[in-house]
Structures are given as structure tokens and as C-alpha cells.
């Protein structure tokens, strides 16, 4: 199965070798072709990953806000991803694709005769024409050579005695593994203490092969650094990337010390091309994402300004008394709303008295508090959190500290005692009002429903009956 998948890669490798006449250069061109084929998919993946990294500060805000409610946090995070059009798993598939390609290339390199050249396996099997010719010429796997790479050594032997094999198969080709004075069919060795340093023609090629895995690991580390440069990350992401930045180079080092040197050349070429690609794409996409972020911030500012204008208009209408009750509101709800307003008035007076005792005013109340409700807008509420993101973190910390320090425990107890001292009939009304208040919302006079028939005026007799009913309930 693997050999069948590897055959197209082997054919491409052989074509590139015939084109340039150098095995090492053919491998580098093969890495370039693979990179170009995958480029359209990697462009989309890269931009998605960079956009997701840009969302890190906003994800931190969600984590602070919903950290204790993981289900709500996951829902809000999924909602944010959907709004921004980001798929968290979008970049994973394309980062895994190089590994199947690496395995296919490895099989093409391991079987140069059957996969790259397409020589029938029967001719290499015992009793086959090529097998017999190899035996007659004295070929045998030398001591210390792994039979795992026997076809590589067979192809080298056939190249050295090509005239003897030329008539056996039209698929056979001469194949040289030489590249910069190195034999890429050899496996690098880290046992440098075994080298014969008395002969430069022996130890210099061995040292060159030794450098291939080292360069491969170093460039693998640099390419990963380039891929993550300029993208903000959470602490968890940074920890994961540190692990990956260590594991991947070590894996590259191990693989290149256990396989023929040509695999190390491919790994080096892939790292160099990936590093160049990431450096270029980081510059291009950072500019595009900066423009997108600026547009988003402008939209958020416009939305905040619109909401603030509506709020101020509502406050102005209330101050001028230009709001009227909905004509459809029942008498019961009207009474509940009136009772609620009375409770709110008394609570405001009590709060103003407490503030006056401490020499404070309403302006000194933290933005997170609404009335007597602490943290009504959130413990660390900052009005311009999204419209002014540069100062959001510092303001959030300051708001949290201000909210914590504003009301002391003994003041909370005083508030409870004062609330309990409210008249029983008044204190009991908020519950009713709270249940029915949504039906009694105030609206500007301009928005009054004119299609609804006006309610008949309340007569003195009905008023007296309502008072009698109230006294009976008490």
C-alpha cells in the first residue's frame, strides 16, 4: 500500500534527477515542488491561525468573566469564533500533511529500483534476471550494512557496472548519490570517536554527514520560531509551543541520524522554505489583520456611541417628564410601578444619606455598582473596555480594586438593617413589582401606541373601592 502511494513521488524524484543530474539538488527541488503544491492550503491555514492568535486578548477577557462557569465560557468562546469566522481546527490538517509526504519520499528513497525506476519486483527476487546478474558479479550486502536499504546499495552497484545490466531492463538508470562530496546513501553517525582522523578522505565526509542532522534540528527550531513570531499567545499556548519547539527539532535529529543522509537534506530544505514562507506571510497578513482590527474597533466605537446616545436621550426625556405610561398597562401594574418607584426613591435617599455621612457623592460610586447592587455590571466593569483596548487591562485592574474597596462588611450590615426597617407594606411591594414591571416599561411620548383605545378615566367610586380592598388585604 505504501509503495503504491509512494510511486508518484518516486516518479517525480526520478524526473527531477534526470533534469538536473544531481541527487541532492533533485531532493531540494522536490521539497520546493511539494511546498508550492501545498501553498494555497497553507495560505488559508496561516491566516486562520494568525487571526485566532489575534483573538487571544478577547479570549482572556471571556476567561476572566466566565472562568468559574466553564459551560458558559465555552459557549461564549464558540460564539466569538463564529462571529470572527475562525475555525480553531482549521490549521491542524495542513500542519500534519508533511508527514505522509515525508513517509512517501522515504519509501521512494528506500526503493530506488522498484519505486523510482519502476523495475519489476520479479527481476530483483531470487531467480530473477537482475538478482542472478548481481550474484554472478559478486554483489552481496556488506557487513554492517542494513538489508533495510539493500535496494540503495544494489542501485549503486548497478551504476558502477551499468554496462553489464543495460540489457536486462529498459527501466534501469544510472543513479549517483553524490552531493557536495558526500554520499547521501550513507547514514550519518554520531560516533565520531570511531572515525579515522589520520585520513582526511575518511573523516571529512563522515563529518559532513554528521552536520546534516545537526543543521536539520537547528533549522527546524528556527522555522518554528519564525512561524510563531509576532502572534500573541495565551500562557497555555506558549507552554504548548515551548514543548513543540523542543520535540520537533529532537525528532528531526533522531530521524536524520537513523536514515540515509538524503532524508536530512530534504528536512533541511523543507525548514528553509517554510521559514522563508512564514516570514513573508507574517508581514503580509499582519498588515491585513491590522486593517481588519481597526475596522472592528471602529464598529464597536460606533455601536457604543449609539447606545450611549440612546441612553442620554432616555435620561433627558425622563428629566423633562416627557415620558408617559403605556396606555395598555393595567391598574394593578400601575400601582406596582408606583410602589417600586417609591421604594427606589427611599433607597436613593438612604444611600445619599450614607454617602453624605462619609463625605461622598453619587460620582464616587464605582461604575460597576447600580443603586445598592454591588457588581451589577461586573466586578471589574470598564465602560470603554473595547473602544480603548490599549488601556483596558490597567483600567480593569483598577476598577476591580475600586469595587472591592468601596463597601466594607459593616456597611453591608447597616444596609440590610435599613432595608428591614422599611414599612412592611412598602417592603412587600417590590416583589410584586419585580414580577410585573416588564409590562410597565416607560416609553417616550413620541412612541406611544396611538392605535390603542384610551383607557376610561378612573372614577372616585372605583378609587374608594380600591382603597377598601387594600385595607382588607392588610
In short:
The protein has 474 residues and is mostly helical. The protein is 68% helix and 2% strand.
Q: Could you please describe the fold and organization of this structure?
A:
This protein has helices at 2-20, 23-54, 56-66, 70-84, 92-96, 98-110, 112-116, 121-124, 129-136, 150-160, 162-165, 200-228, 235-258, 261-320, 331-357, 392-406, 409-420, 424-436, 460-473, and strands at 178-179, 182-183, 323-325, 442-444. It has two domains: 2-117 and 175-290, no CATH class; 322-445, no CATH class. Helix content is 68%, strand content 2%. The N and C termini lie far apart (89 Å). It has 474 residues and is mainly α. It has a two-stranded antiparallel ribbon with strand order 1-2. A two-stranded antiparallel sheet has the order 3-4. A hairpin with a 2-residue loop joins strand 1 (178-179) and strand 2. The relative contact order is 0.08. It is elongated and about 110 Å long. The model is unreliable at 422-474 (pLDDT under 50). It has 19 helices and four strands.
Q: Which features does this protein show?
A:
single chain, mainly alpha, two-stranded antiparallel sheet, 474 residues, 2 domains, 68% helix, 19 helices, disordered C terminus
| Shape by Cα distribution | elongated
Query: What is the H/E string?
Result: HHHHHHHHHHHEEHHHEHHHHEH
Quote the distance from N terminus to C terminus. Answer: 89 Å
Provide a count of the helices: 19
Give the amount of beta strand, in percent: under 5%
Amino acid at each position: 500500500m505504501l509503495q503504491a502511494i509512494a510511486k508518484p513521488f518516486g516518479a517525480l524524484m526520478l524526473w527531477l534527477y534526470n533534469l538536473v543530474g544531481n541527487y541532492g539538488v533533485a531532493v531540494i527541488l522536490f521539497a520546493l515542488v511539494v511546498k508550492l503544491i501545498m501553498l494555497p492550503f497553507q495560505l488559508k491555514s496561516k491566516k486562520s491561525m494568525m487571526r485566532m492568535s489575534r483573538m487571544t486578548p478577547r479570549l482572556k477577557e471571556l476567561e476572566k468573566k466566565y472562568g468559574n462557569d466553564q459551560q458558559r465560557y465555552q459557549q461564549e468562546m464558540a460564539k466569538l469564533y463564529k462571529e470572527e469566522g475562525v475555525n480553531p481546527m482549521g490549521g491542524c490538517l495542513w500542519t500534519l500533511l508533511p508527514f505522509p509526504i515525508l513517509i512517501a519520499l522515504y519509501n521512494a528513497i528506500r526503493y530506488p529500483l522498484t519505486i523510482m525506476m519502476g523495475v519489476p519486483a520479479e527481476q530483483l527476487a531470487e531467480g530473477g534476471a537482475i538478482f542472478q546478474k548481481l550474484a554472478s558479479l559478486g554483489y552481496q550486502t556488506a557487513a554492517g550494512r542494513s538489508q533495510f536499504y539493500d535496494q540503495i546499495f544494489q542501485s549503486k552497484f548497478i551504476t558502477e557496472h551499468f554496462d553489464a545490466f543495460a540489457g536486462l531492463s529498459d527501466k534501469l538508470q544510472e543513479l549517483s548519490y553524490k552531493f557536495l562530496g558526500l554520499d547521501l546513501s550513507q547514514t550519518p553517525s554520531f560516533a565520531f570517536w570511531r572515525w579515522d582522523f589520520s585520513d582526511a578522505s575518511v573523516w571529512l565526509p563522515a563529518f559532513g554527514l554528521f552536520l546534516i542532522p545537526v543543521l536539520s534540528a537547528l533549522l527546524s527550531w528556527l522555522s518554528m520560531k519564525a512561524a510563531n513570531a509576532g502572534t500573541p499567545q495565551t500562557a497555555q499556548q506558549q507552554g504548548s509551543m515551548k514543548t513543540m519547539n523542543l520535540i520537533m527539532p529532537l525528532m528531526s535529529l533522531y530521524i536524520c541520524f537513523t536514515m540515509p543522509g538524503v532524508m536530512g537534506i530534504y528536512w533541511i530544505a523543507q525548514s528553509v522554505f517554510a521559514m522563508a514562507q512564514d516570514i513573508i506571510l507574517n508581514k503580509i497578513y499582519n498588515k491585513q489583520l491590522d486593517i481588519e482590527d481597526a475596522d472592528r474597533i471602529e464598529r464597536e466605537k460606533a455601536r457604543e456611541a449609539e447606545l450611549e446616545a440612546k441612553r442620554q436621550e432616555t435620561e433627558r426625556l425622563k428629566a423633562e417628564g416627557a415620558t408617559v405610561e403605556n396606555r395598555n398597562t393595567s391598574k394593578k401594574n400601575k400601582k406596582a410601578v408606583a410602589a417600586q418607584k417609591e421604594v427606589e426613591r427611599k433607597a436613593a435617599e438612604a444611600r445619599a444619606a450614607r454617602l453624605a455621612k462619609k463625605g461622598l457623592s453619587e460620582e464616587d460610586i464605582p461604575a460597576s455598582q447600580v443603586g445598592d447592587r454591588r457588581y451589577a455590571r461586573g466586578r471589574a466593569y470598564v465602560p470603554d473596555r473595547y473602544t480603548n483596548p490599549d488601556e483596558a487591562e490597567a483600567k480593569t485592574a483598577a476598577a476591580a480594586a475600586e469595587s472591592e474597596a468601596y463597601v466594607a462588611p459593616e456597611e453591608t450590615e447597616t444596609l440590610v438593617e435599613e432595608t428591614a426597617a422599611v414599612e412592611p407594606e412598602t417592603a412587600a411591594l417590590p416583589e410584586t413589582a419585580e414580577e410585573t414591571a416588564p409590562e410597565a416599561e416607560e416609553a417616550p411620548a413620541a412612541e406611544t401606541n396611538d392605535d390603542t383605545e384610551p383607557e376610561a378615566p378612573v372614577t372616585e367610586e372605583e378609587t374608594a373601592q380600591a382603597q377598601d380592598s387594600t385595607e382588607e388585604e392588610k
